[in-house]
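for the recovery benchmark. tokens below, seq after
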């Protein structure tokens, strides 16, 4: 079973990992997952586990690591504003007292009053930090940021540097507030998706409509959705018409017009008319539910950078504390026993060395990137995949349903020994159980009711075709290659064709055409400008592939492929680029699950095959627009640049000021900037990733 806890106020990624590791060691706990993105700790436990006992154990672990963090069974967002207001008032009062103290000391020359004001300001700013640090020390968690700050500020007070002591506490509090606001801002960006899961449904019963939970609605039931309500389950509109806001699922800002017979998706919002919907699947199989699961598990897939920072922070704080002690004790023994000066340098070294900027800004950058991607209608399963998108060396693109619309139309019927209408009838009945775009186009062209009573032994062969018995006759509808494998000779069609054999005899083919998506050429041109190799893969005929390739101009293209051959070609090209080269595959998520899974970054068009796409892909383009791949690349590049610049900036500033501090060339004010200033700048730099591009900005077409 699973036990879930919300850790309210948790905004330190390093502490989150410590809590997870400690929780995993508890009795009856098999594994622990910490979702820093949502502040949720999930424990997988044995059946004999006691939930109340686990809660107490988790609360004790959290209190030891982060005493100010509350362990809750459910989130309470109203507490967030009150907490912010309290912190702002504390900082404002501390700042006013600090200014008054400086005026008293340097302008009014009232030294006694200034000391009183300094002490008052220090107590206001340092009280909570001191309580947190003392609690942590009592629970043997000595090496933490609060302890570093408290030690340094008390040392400054002892040395008579009252203004510096207050400044350390004041600006540290400002930095903590900025950090908390930034983390919660990023979380709210993701929470907008999680909150899109509907809470209730109006189910039609014998006694009229009844409000129930979506989980309890059987498939095939009728539900009613009023204006302003979320559509609770996937289904087909039975009556009424409306406009639907799909932004929560696709990121598309414009509403979609819906009428009787149209499909609707759970999590989208009914904007105007009352509609009734016949449900087609349970809530647990809906796209929005799978998206929520994917997002909630996203933080578990960490990048190499995040893993490095986690390990780095584990050893960094004890190391710099030891270095500060050595700096305070050893040099005076060789420089005339001037301990006061060197203790001051050691305290400055402590403040500079606080790892906040690194520990929070790296995961913050990736969370911001994931949140920004979601707003653009791009679902990313984890930061490791977001990091990889802009580092791929080759992108493999499926043709049908990805570069082309996948909206096939029958353009020609060529029959032999049978009428065209009969050929179409047999093909439509054989393809009745398939949802492949070709099958749908054949059934649409047939335009009559399918007699399911005459269809038996229907079987779909991935990448090949279908077999069925229609009215007792064995019907094979397949591509030309599979026809040959079954010993049936057939002529070559000019384009994409479905070949039909009845009782082993070739009876003709149905030619089908597809149109290229308007943005496909722009995507390939964009990738080319970025130095990324583009390869088009398709199971269609060589002639059809060639005609599309002439329009889109990919670097390479391969035709008449089975799904396993697509994987083989992808691995072959990857070997040519080098073993360490990363490759991406973008498909429609229906027949390409195995290829998507085998790519370093598997991407899928979410609308065409949302369920399969979200199950297997690392990146899902929910608007079915290949141009979203360009946006994903830009978000990835911007995120990676922000993370790298944060690391370089934080380490550079800290190392430089540490050296200056060790040689007595940096004071406590410089130390405060090296800690709080760097942290705030790094967090703000991470949040830049969430800034969306201006409306009207488009990618350049070739």
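predicted aa per position
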């Amino acid at each position: 079973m699973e036990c879930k806890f919300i850790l309210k106020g948790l905004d330190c990624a390093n502490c989150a990992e410590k809590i997870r590791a400690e929780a995993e060691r508890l009795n009856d706990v098999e594994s622990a997952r910490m979702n820093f993105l949502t502040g949720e700790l999930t424990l997988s436990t044995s059946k004999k586990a006691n939930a109340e006992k686990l809660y107490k154990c988790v609360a004790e672990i959290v209190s030891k690591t982060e005493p100010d963090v509350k362990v809750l069974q459910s989130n309470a967002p109203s507490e967030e504003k009150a907490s912010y207001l309290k912190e702002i008032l504390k900082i404002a009062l501390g700042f006013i007292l600090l200014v008054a103290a400086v005026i008293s000391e340097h302008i009014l020359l009232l030294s006694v009053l200034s000391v009183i004001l300094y002490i008052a300001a220090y107590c206001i700013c340092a009280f909570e930090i001191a309580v947190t640090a003392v609690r942590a020390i009592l629970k043997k968690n000595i090496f933490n940021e609060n302890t570093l700050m408290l030690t340094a500020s008390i040392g400054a007070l002892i040395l008579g540097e009252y203004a510096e002591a207050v400044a350390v506490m004041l600006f540290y509090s400002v930095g903590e507030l900025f950090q908390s606001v930034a983390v919660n801002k990023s979380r709210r960006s993701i929470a907008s998706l999680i909150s899109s899961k509907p809470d209730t449904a109006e189910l039609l019963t014998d006694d009229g409509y009844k409000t129930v939970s979506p989980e309890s609605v059987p498939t095939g039931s009728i539900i009613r959705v009023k204006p302003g309500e979320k559509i609770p389950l996937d289904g087909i509109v039975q009556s009424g018409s409306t406009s639907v806001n799909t932004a929560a699922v696709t990121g598309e800002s414009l509403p979609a017009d819906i009428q009787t017979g149209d499909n609707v998706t759970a999590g989208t919002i009914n904007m105007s008319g009352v509609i009734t919907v016949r449900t087609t699947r349970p809530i647990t199989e809906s796209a929005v539910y799978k998206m929520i699961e994917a997002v909630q598990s996203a933080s578990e897939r960490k990048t190499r950078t995040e893993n490095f920072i986690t390990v780095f922070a584990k050893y960094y704080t004890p190391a710099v504390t030891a270095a500060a002690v050595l700096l305070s004790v050893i040099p005076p023994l060789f420089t005339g026993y001037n301990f006061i000066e060197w203790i001051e340098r050691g305290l400055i070294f402590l403040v500079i060395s606080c790892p906040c900027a690194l520990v929070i800004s790296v995961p913050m950058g990736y969370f911001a990137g994931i949140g920004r991607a979601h707003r653009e209608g791009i679902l990313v399963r984890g930061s490791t995949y977001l990091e990889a998108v802009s580092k791929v060396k080759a992108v493999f693109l499926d043709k049908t349903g990805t570069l082309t619309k996948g909206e096939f139309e029958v353009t020609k019927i060529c029959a032999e020994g049978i009428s065209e209408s009969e050929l179409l009838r047999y093909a439509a009945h054989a393809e009745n159980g398939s949802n492949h775009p070709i099958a749908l186009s054949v059934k649409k062209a047939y335009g009559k009711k399918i007699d399911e009573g005459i269809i038996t032994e229907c079987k779909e062969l991935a990448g090949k075709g279908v077999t069925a018995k229609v009215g007792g006759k064995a019907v094979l509808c397949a591509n030309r290659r599979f026809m040959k494998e079954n010993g049936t000779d057939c002529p070559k069609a000019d384009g994409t064709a479905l070949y039909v054999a009845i009782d082993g005899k070739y009876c003709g083919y149905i030619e089908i055409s597809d149109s290229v998506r308007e943005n496909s050429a722009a995507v390939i041109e964009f990738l080319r400008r970025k130095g990324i190799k583009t390869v088009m893969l398709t199971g269609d005929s060589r002639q059809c592939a060639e005609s599309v390739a002439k329009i889109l101009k990919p670097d390479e293209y391969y035709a008449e492929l089975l799904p396993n051959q697509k994987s083989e070609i992808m691995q072959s090209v990857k070997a040519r680029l080098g073993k360490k080269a990363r490759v991406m595959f973008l498909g429609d998520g229906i027949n390409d699950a195995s290829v998507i899974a085998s790519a370093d970054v598997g991407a899928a068009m979410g609308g065409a095959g949302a369920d399969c796409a979200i199950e297997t892909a690392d990146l899902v383009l929910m608007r079915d627009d290949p141009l979203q791949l360009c946006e994903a690349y830009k978000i990835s590049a911007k995120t990676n640049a922000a993370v790298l610049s944060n690391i370089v900036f934080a380490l550079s500033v800290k190392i430089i000021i540490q050296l200056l501090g060790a040689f007595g060339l940096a004071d406590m004010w410089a130390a405060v900037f090296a800690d709080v200033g760097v942290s705030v700048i790094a967090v703000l730099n991470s949040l830049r990733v969430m800034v969306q591009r201006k409306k009207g900005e488009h990618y350049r077409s070739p």
